[in-house]
Structures
1.
Amino acid sequence: MTAPPTGTLTLWYDRPASDWESEALPIGNGALGAMIFGGIGQERVQFNEKSLWTGGPGEDPAHTGGVWESPRPTALAEARRLQVLAEGGTRTDAADHVTVTAADAVTLLLTAGTDHVHRLSDYKGDHPHARVTARLDAAAAKPYGRLLARHEADYRELFGRVRLDLGQRPPTVPTDQLLKAYTGGSSPSERALEALMFAYGRYLLISSSRAGSLPANLQGVWNKDTSAAWSGDYHPNINPQMNYWPAEVTNLTETTGPLFEFIDGLRPRGRQSAKVIFDADGWVVNNETNAFDFTGVHDWPTAFWFPEAAAWLTRHLWEHYEFTGDRAFLRSRAYPIMREAAEFWLDFLVADPRDGTLVAVPSYSPEHGKFTAATSMSQQIVWDLFTNVLAAGKVHGGDTAFRAGLGRALSKLDPGLRVGSWGQLQEWKEDLDDPADTHRHVSHLYALHPGSQISPVTTPAYAQAAKVSLTAREGDGSGWAPGWSRSWKTGFMARGCYTRTVIAAWDWRNGAFTRRWTFDSSSSTNTGRGYDGQGNHQLSVADVDQDGRDEIVYGAMAVDDNGNGLWTTRNGHGDAMHVGDLNPSRSGLEVFKVGEDASKPSSWLADARTGQILWSTPASGDNGRGVSGDIWAGSAGAESWSAAVDGVRSPSG
């Protein structure tokens, strides 16, 4: 492309791709995927059909999905059909190629399929040849324009529901250069890349997870190898779950169907694994599964031991109900699957002789170890499962005996939440965390995201400990790679670490908004100045320095009228806040704030111009609510009250 496109959601480059993973561009319809290289003199289209897997059971009735004593055979039938339609010119067919010369236009129709059926225990349906041929013939009977219009309408119905406006402008450099130059700053080109990445993620999910196909997997429908890295399968210690994190929150709920079908299909083999491997009821899957319901454990336990996977997968079922309110889905699909996953853990948990709590044994934190009792991630996932099943059961109704027993187990469950010796959220029940460890896994923060056990509002001490762990794992930056790890850590930040604040000021002139300035606590100007994590549940505007122009007061910090940081107390995130002449015996305005950080003052009064603390109350955890106002005429100035502090404070404290 010689000139930049006019839109902000276009991936564009100034040369063809040479590598399929890092440069070629993906297209797909759920079952079929292709990588476009963009060549002119010679184009290459790499394609794949998602159900074409090696290592399957074939016709061997001894296939046991990982609960076996003999090697796996392989046998899948597949069919591929390519039709070349030329408008004008001549077409010459040979055994291994088609030649078209002097044509006005050429349309290539490509389709493929296999005989795979997600069905215990043979996984084989009818040979795909007739089905694939019929599909190709139906497409060939329709004009190209009609096929394109139908595809675009189908895609846009999903993609067009959401639009992210960050103030971006169309970039003037190719996408690869835009990515290379990204710094996280506040320029329109930086915002353009962020908006593009958001849209691209939705595009990929639409393209890789549609009704009737398998769910999105590791390399996805775009994998090019018959022997793919990590087998191209499903590693449910985060990978398939992460693929579907955008589904509900970005209004793509239809893409979840393949995932739910797959989870439900895992249960029959998962029951066998639960009984044979663990002598437990319910169903289970470990840290690898595939199109043939592998639910056992490979002979590399430090990589593949993860019986928590089924419990984590069921969170998506509960979230689907929370977003849609679909009670029929909850009754017929979600609750039975969730309940049966909970049955396994009711059998698997044991009482810890040290404190009597219910714990998972053995338990292993992914890629960190050690095999212990009550690894934090294990306990947090089980807590999440039990909590969600009880909530679903309350909506579902009935099943009272089971729900009562599950409630008793939850009350005895070790929650997997502990603050360690250096302020971190412990990864194990014992305080074993190494502050120098920068490994990419941060599994013990599951309770913060995607779980809901930790929140800066309800559990500020644990939220602060999670932030300490997250900061340590970042280390020198190497701990953030690869991409999936960065995505998870971004989720932690967004869920509740409150490390970044962005405030924008806008002018309204001539019927239009114009941005005057942007304050970003994480920009290069503000990094290290203590503005991170100083947010609040409310924001105030007041002329705190009495220069005739209003400033922004947001929690434990203030921003000047020019967008520069004015001051920060570093007292952390909080709740209620009041700005005014709260103490008339001194000049200027004051700020009264109620804190939520268990390690900081529970409330305080500060000079609104400088941020100097005038008085404070001792730390008390989440203080919650508070108010400051002239409520007693017998005393000049405002009186201050907050939920976790006894009595009412005078203007002088």
2.
Amino acid sequence: MPKDRHRLFRLLALNLAIGLIYILGMRATFGFSELMPAASHWATWIPIWLPAGVLLAFVLRYGAWVAPGAWLGSMAADALAGSLGQASFFFSTIHVLQPLLIRALLIRWRTPLDTIFLQTPSAFRFIVITAGAIFFFGAILGGLMLSMPFDQTTLPRLLENWCRWGLADLAATLVITPPVHLALNNRSDLRQALSASALLAISFGLLLTVLVFVNPMRESGFSVLPASFVLFPLVVWSGLRQRPLDTALLVTTLVMAVCTATATGEGPFAAAADPSRSLFLLQGFIVAISVTGLLLSATNTELLTAQRQLRAIVDGLDLLVDERTAELNQANRRLQAEIASGQRTGTIIRGHSVIMEMLATGRGIPDIAACLVKELRRVEPSWRAAILIPDDTGKWRILGAGSDEASFARTAAMLRRDPSALLPNTAVATMQKRAAHAFQIRGAEPADPGPPMHFEPIPLGGEELVAVLAIRPSTGSFAEPFDIELVQDTARLAGIVLDNRRSQERLRHAATHDTLTGALNRHGFFDAITGRFSASQAEGKRLAIFYIDLDGFKVVNDACGHEVGDRLLVEISGRFASLLGPKDLLCRLGGDEFVVAHAGITDPAAADALADRMIAACRSPRSLKDTALAVTPSIGICLYDDPAAPIGAILDQADAAMYSAKRNGGGRAAWHEQQQSELARSA
């Protein structure tokens, strides 16, 4: 409700303002007649009907809402002039209906009212519609009213009144309506209208008007009618160079100055004819100069608008080209990065394939580690890398370093001083968290320490960390996320290699060794004996086979249980192993039977001496579970020096010799009968 009341107050204020403006316009219009000299006074000398131009501008802006104020203003103006009557009612009605008709016709022709003077087609339609509505509506009705009473009216007088009404209204709509309409629709242009160039143009136009429309010019013979058209170049310049509002204000100023000078009897129009005829000349001049300024200004505005739109389009195209160029460059960079990434990935995959092939063919860990580091440096040539594996003594074994081994050796030496800094006694998961924060090893190379070294733990099946991938990048840090991924991927691959080798070693050990004593089993012994025999043959020495059976072991096993028997076998095996050298073989065939292959025999006495030591080792006191145990070995000896003899036959000979020792009381050694005879003959 308050909003509706506020709107009503605004509407009443607008109509009141229109009424006051209409009164002032009518007073100013009749003022032209008052300016005329008494000798040439013509009561109906009205060159331009100012209220018509103002009212049309407000009707175009606000519609029929201003019609009541205009009608009341017209009636009030007549009342103030003392001529209020029935004719005033009809005059006021015609004056109000005429702009409403023009507005309706413009809308009918789909003319945009807000930009009517900013586009050439719209301005042209405005001129045509306004002229048609005025001369075929207002001028006809107004001319008839001015010609009353009709019984005394002649055709020339009727045409004269029709022209007077039509030209006065048309001049007003062409001169007054454009600046008022532009000011109402573009208040920002109104605030900027009186620019320096606009003021200069208006001042120069007034100066030209004074020069043309003064009596000294008439006296000098410069009073011919074409002299008035010296104002046209200024209007043309303004229409092509200035804003529409500036041109409209210039035209209005010039027209008012020319009308004032002509009303006072000055200028070419006053000199050309008497006031009743000079009025039509002046109105024709007003229509010509206003139409020129209006059309040129609209054309220039349309051209400037098209130029701005074209510039905006060009700028938009430039921006679009820049955006597309940037997108193309970005896509090109992405493509190059993808190509580089693809090449990098291809290099990594090929490296993995090589490593897996080496793993499948049974290559050793040092060779595979060297290949792994080589493939890592193939991807990142500026990196130095090595794999560090601790041995049984706690020293770090460096694999794959190549020519950089000295640098990593210094690092490994420092790690031996404080191994907990890198290898705390924790699980791999904890170690990985700590190793994620790479640290710098200092003090090894005081002159040129170089970039800091980074350590990546090598996971080995959930066990404690036993290997590390050491990397020294060229920049001291990994530049891209895929560098970190490459390091982690290399560490995982190294873990797979080490895990595989350890698993193979465990499987090979399980397949070739006795699970209880750790000595070779039958399969492992048969695999290893051929190599030992070949080595002895190459050294010019002989290989002795000792077949051992523990006397009394079954009694101990039955009396004390299998656990004690197993512990006894482990102890006996350990005592045998302590008597053997690195080239000798110890095998548990099964139960309490052992086989020893002693390499490097030069004469049978050496074999007898070893047999005596094994017998002595078994006879030394022992106690398991507080139980005194007494076992003695029966040993059969056979020399293995015939390459054509199968190892199975040699074992059978040694086994037969062992039973010979056992039949003779046990706890002694015996040679195979055939070999004993051969040894006796050779002796």
3.
Amino acid sequence: MQKKRAVTALVIAVAVAGSSNALIAPAVAHGSATSAATAGKTALLPSPAMGLPAKKVSLKKVTKNNLNLRAGTSAKTKALLVIPKNSAVIVTEISGIWSKTSFKGKTGWVASSYLKNAPAAKKPSPKTTAKPSATKLTKNNLILRQGKSTTTKALVVIPKNTTVSVTQTSGAWSKTGYKGKTGWVASSYLKNAPAAKKPAPKSTTVSHRYTTGFTFLRKSASDKSASLGAYQRRAKVEYLGLSGAWSKVKVSGKTGFIKSSDLAKTNPALVSRWLESTQVVHQGASKDSAKLTTLAKGSKVEWLRTSGSWMAIRTPKGNGWVPGSALSKAEINPTTSKPPAPKAVYRWTTANVNLRKGAGTSHASLGTIPANERVTYLKSASGWSNVKSTKGTGWVSNAYLDTQGQYPFAVYGTLRKGQSAYYILKGKTTRETRTTIASHSMYLQPNQTWLSYVIPSTKASDTVVVERMDIKPASYLSTVANMDAWERFDPKKPLADQNYNRVLVTDKDGTRSWAYLGSKKIAAYLMKNGIRVTSGDYLKRF
């Protein structure tokens, strides 16, 4: 029993001792070197690692207190030195609650709880950078300061719009100089100087000469040399140099030689002549030469040279020749003839229409002009025309005027020769022509096959045979009235309300003629119910 009590006491003693060593520490963490007076002050420490494996790391830390660097991962191990508070260290291993680090050449272990993460590294302040000299312009009156701060001494005021050279920049400041002073100015008050203007290109003086008469450009400085071209008086050439009695020149892209005696530094005066009569200008000095152009009497031309009885002249069509006798040194006024009287312009009324005092229906009527009357057109205003008519001079709406005169009639069906109603046109025509109109179809009523209609078609191959009747001018108006009555067409009524509409059509000869076509309402009915005459010829419908 006593032996059992002794073993129990030993176990309790070991646990307390172990616990005591683990939980008690001096004022310097983990047993830093302290005086005996402070040895009694303790701090609770975490338990030591119990055989945990070390972990390799690389961490930047800072000590929270003065901290013992120990030889091992236990507060019982030897203290190598004290790392002062706020010291930066690098942790290379971690084992439980302990961190391995180095300080002043010693490597050991410290309690991790007395370390904190190192603060993030501060961004370096902007370095002063030297730049190649940049030309700037001050936006305002600007203080040149001794340093890069508004608190530094002001050296001088640089006036607004002054050009300065910036040699360095540092943050928001630029280094420059003015009136022998060098300092700093706020960069925000500078702007780029305008680009320097490029110097105007130096003019390269080119010397020129002018021909004084008809001359040749030679390949070399000799009359016997081959000709590179002939040039008339007052031709401009580029002078290149002198070669004896010859000048080397460039003209028309060719380089050659012209006698110096045929050249002048200034352009000779222009010599003018006037044509005494209308003349044909020839390409050569002969009437047998080809024609260049024709010039009217009194035309002013430039004289170039004389060859025998002919003179070379410059015209808008090029250089040519006329007999010398046709030219005068004195100005000749061309024969001025009165301009021809303007031709009368006519219109034709398309219906019985009012002639009004002014351009509008609010003006009083001067009378009614019959349909198809030819009137003399004078002028237009606001959709109306001022005309002369049998009712006097006044205004007619453009809607009732046509620019063409009396039209023939293109007739088919009962108005063809041999039909009962042909008498309407008998004796009234000057010519009758058999022709066709394209893009039109012929239909008969299903219950009245003697009644034919022509209606427009979308197919150019659909044609209708017609007789084009040219009406005698004296009978035109009465014939139109009789035709309208026969076809029961009234030009004053809406087209949609009538079976037949008088419409202008164009035949295969390009002639426009009146034709009585079925209205839209009749056309819709016939295309659905009517009998189509495929030949387009009423007399051959069966």
4.
Amino acid sequence: MMKNAYKFLGYFAFLGVIIFASSCGDDDGGIDIGDGAGTFSVSDGVYIAGISGTDVSVSTAAVLNSNMVEGPDFGTIERSGHLVGYVYLTAGNYVFAEIDEQEILNQWGGTATTTDGSMTLSGAETSEQPSEFVVVSLSENGAAFAVGTEGVYHVVFDTQSSEALLTRVTSWGVIGGAVFESACVSNGFNSDVDVVESSSSADGTTWESSGIILKGGEYKIRFNDAWKIDRRTMVDDNDPYNAANGYVALTNLGGTLSALEEGGSNITLADADAGTYTVTVSLSDAGVISLAIERTGDAEVCAFDIENFTWGIIGGATFDDWNTDQELTYANGDGGVHKWRGVFPLDAGGDGNNQFKFRTDDTWATKLLPTNVNVTDNTDAGTISDDGATNADGQWFLADGNSGLYYFEVTTDDFGVTWNMTIDEAAFEVIGAATPGGWDTGTVMTYNDDLASATVTGIALTADEYKFRVNAGWDYNLGGALTDLVFNGGNITATAGTFDITITTADGGVTYTATVQ
């Protein structure tokens, strides 16, 4: 081991994820290091350190701090021996050094490999990781590893997995429902509005963009268009964040403007503060990262346009979980009343993942929550609830054991100032001149308890026309070709005989088909 072989490298700069800077006083238990022009103090801890020959160069700005990793429900959990920092590195060779009372207590190096971020260790593809990062397989007293490009790096040092991660921070972005790409359209939590690098050096790095539209809602910042780096070798469905299987490092910052935390909660902007902003992310020479937003003008008012209100349902109870929306169909704007309708299978299998929400355009630009929509719930008491007293997010819940098809109608009669929703359990029926009840009375189909279909058995048809509708009304009806039923589609021609008819959705209610056997 090496003792008292330290030099100061002025080109280091550090940003702690749990943000606090290292002290430089002589009374903090640190290390006094001579650099030929005086002394300074380096606190005890683990550092990424430059190395030249046998000389190890340590800077107060390059210390790594204990940090949280991803936990359940978009939260964070502790992980022993998981250290993180944002550090300005010049091109050169590096090791990790543990400093204790003016000595290098331990030193680690290893083999560095550039990794494609599109795949995880468990084999799953992901779009949530940086496009590439460097993995260093660590060993005590291992060889130094090279950093080839100067810049700010997100550095992870994980003792449990004996590895380090280095990701060069090429960009920052602001993301969330409060962030709008135009007057009416928010990117939601799907894509960033870029905050571009304006200056970068050991004295500090700044990313800044002007004219960004922020409205009431939530947002965060993240680097390289990434949410996290998944280093789990396997994902246990029963315990997905078991430390023995690895960890998920976080690449986003939230919390508050005055106290950013990696993986922290969303930052909230009040409705009254909507406007255009200059957004600045800074890494100081003292190792402190900060986020500043400066209001520069009023945000353009969104004019009502149905193209800006593509309503969809999303959530754990829906066909594609929280990944993509199942969209409602726009019905009409007769009499100034705009209507969107849909029939969707909802799963309430008792796994606790029975939530769903409504939002527009696959983003969180506009949400229909129990707190901002007038709801008429025609389902049985307790089938659908919002748990408003305990649920700050306002999402809806489907009670266990109530899986099935549900009909939703969303309307506004004042151009989006207020919204209304009607919820019903959905019963398809076959109706028309070809059916026993003619065009007056439909034959009800039976839900098949498969989250996909409903069937009527042994129905006698004549050689005439029919179609499908929901809940004995024409608000939601389907016709056209059996292989591609469409809302308000044309009548279907029947062949005389006795048949079993099944209507089916393979995409969670976006489209329907039917079979006649």
